[in-house]
Design brief:
The chain is an alpha/beta fold and about 350 residues long. About 40% of the residues lie in helices and about 15% in strands.
């Protein structure tokens, strides 16, 4: 039987795209400074609290850039307490494999997929954010082989709940050179998450983009707690005090480098009730105040926010409102960030 796959066109290699859309020396220096600062936080040398915060998906350039400009002004206010890593997620997993898969697939959500335009659009978006605000952003490693299109721009990478058991994601994470958060799988199995961190922190040799490659291991691979879903479809949070102590114990037994947790306040921790993120964030700060172990372990939060509360379908066209998971609007975001700065 013949392969049921149509080869549409060959896309540029990451090196070719970087040559076509290069970073100047000033932007490279900003990126390096950000990398050094974030690494220091994960080593415990910088005590600032991390917020990986921003839209569920970067759906349109103009709204995302406005969000980043607002966040930059807010970040400057709280920079002594909080370290802001904006979310700029340009590719999105889909539970059933259909629907909007992010700017990488559809630079315009209302038009057909166009991967060539997509890889250019995501590189240009991340570059504009770096140039306009000095932010290096977080993105999801949905496709490990695509990471190098943005490897000189990103400050943080997340491996999602559906990808964390995949060998290619784990071993690619061992060589990306920036912090990589490994989410617990949707089942909630913390052992899977810890094994993924161990694999990412280890030296790995494997095939990548047609090359035999060797990595040094990533000492900044760490845990992201995002809650779970049981066999009946019921969500179970895992951000409570007892959950955090449990992860601390797992880290102690595993003897991994730089133990760290980022708590995802949305997804199965909130049941996708986006306003619950506010309460959950405050609950986690309370746990940090009452346990030195948790205070050291929990390095930050992941929060989904955008310009407008909630979410919408693609055809509604509300500027700055999520077309994937519901997000906190700007007013709630601003108030929450200021409150977290007071508590950090």
């Amino acid at each position: 039987m013949e392969m049921q796959m149509e080869f549409i066109r060959q896309l540029p290699k990451p090196a070719e795209l970087k040559e076509q859309f290069p970073l100047d020396d000033q932007l490279k220096a900003v990126k390096q400074k950000r990398d050094d600062e974030l690494a220091a936080i994960f080593r415990g040398e910088d005590k600032r609290f991390i917020l990986v915060i921003g839209p569920c998906s970067a759906d349109r350039e103009d709204a995302v850039l406005e969000y980043m400009d607002r966040m930059k002004r807010l970040a400057d206010e709280v920079e002594d307490k909080l370290y802001i890593v904006p979310r700029c997620y340009t590719n999105k997993p889909r539970t059933k494999g259909v629907g909007y898969k992010g700017m990488l697939h559809q630079p315009d959500p209302t038009k057909a997929e166009d991967m060539l335009a997509g890889i250019i659009a995501i590189r240009e978006l991340h570059t504009k954010i770096l140039k306009n605000t000095g932010f290096t952003c977080a993105d999801e490693m949905l496709y490990p082989e695509n990471h190098r299109y943005l490897s000189d721009l990103l400050g943080y990478v997340a491996v999602g709940a559906r990808s964390v058991e995949n060998q290619q994601h784990r071993i690619t994470a061992s060589g990306v050179g920036i912090p990589v958060g490994m989410k617990n799988p949707t089942s909630g199995d913390l052992g899977v998450m810890m094994n993924a961190i161990s694999a990412a922190q280890s030296r790995q040799r494997f095939v990548y983009r047609g090359w035999e490659v060797q990595t040094t291991g990533n000492q900044y691979a760490h845990a992201i707690l995002r809650g779970s879903v049981d066999k009946y479809g019921r969500t179970t949070p895992n951000y409570y005090y007892e959950d955090l102590q449990r992860v601390n114990s797992l880290y102690e037994r595993a003897e991994l480098e730089n133990p760290a947790v980022i708590v995802d306040t949305n997804h199965s921790n909130s049941g996708k009730h986006f306003e619950e993120q506010i309460r959950i964030a405050k609950d986690i700060m309370h746990s940090r105040r009452h346990s030195d172990d948790i205070n050291r372990l929990v390095k930050g939060l992941m929060i989904e926010s955008y310009l407008v509360d909630g979410c919408q379908s693609v055809d509604e066209g509300v500027y700055g409102k999520s077309i994937t998971d519901p997000c906190l609007g700007w007013e709630k975001t601003e108030a929450l960030v200021r409150e977290l700065a007071e508590e950090a």
